[in-house]
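Hi everyone, sorry if this is the wrong subforum. Our group has a chain we'd like a structural model of before ordering constructs, and none of us has done structure prediction before. Sequence below.
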Amino acid sequence: MVSCKEVKVRLVPFTKKYLGLVYKLYQNQSFMNEFGDMDADEKTYESLLKWYEEVADDTATELYAIKKSNDDVIVGFVHVDDIDEYEETAWLSIGIDPDFQNIGYGKEAICLTLGYLFNERELKKCRLGVLSHNKRAIHLYESLGFVLEHVIPRSKFTCHKEPDIYQMILLNASHKTI
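Answer:
Right subforum, don't worry. Here is the predicted structure as tokens:
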């Protein structure tokens, strides 16, 4: 059983009105250094809007805004992608506003998401990718039971500017309660 002990955040369906937060984060170089940089044309509001419209109706994708429990402040987002009921797996990504990092919001949001994926959707595996230099995120994921599954070397990317990417996996039975 997956559960969270604390109640610092809640997940709400991500709607178009939250795109401004993602746009703001994509303009923050400190955030992008940890999240994974992208081409300038992918960071425009118009490209985000186009992306949102493409995934909003995709049954294999779920988007959530992360709200503080005691008010309506949005501190980040969760993107669950490639949900495959047959393979019982999904991919997870999370972005937390740097102003709200190191408080436990990201850990709890991941825990809530995993609880939903494992307990309600009855998935067996969850994967994520993390830049090899993002030691805080790697430590967080390992504390939740994720293990390194595969290293994607930077040489696989045409621009070679990104570090290696660690592909991590969590099996349902190995998830820990926070």
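For your construct planning: The longest strand covers residues 74-84. The chain has one domain: 9-175.
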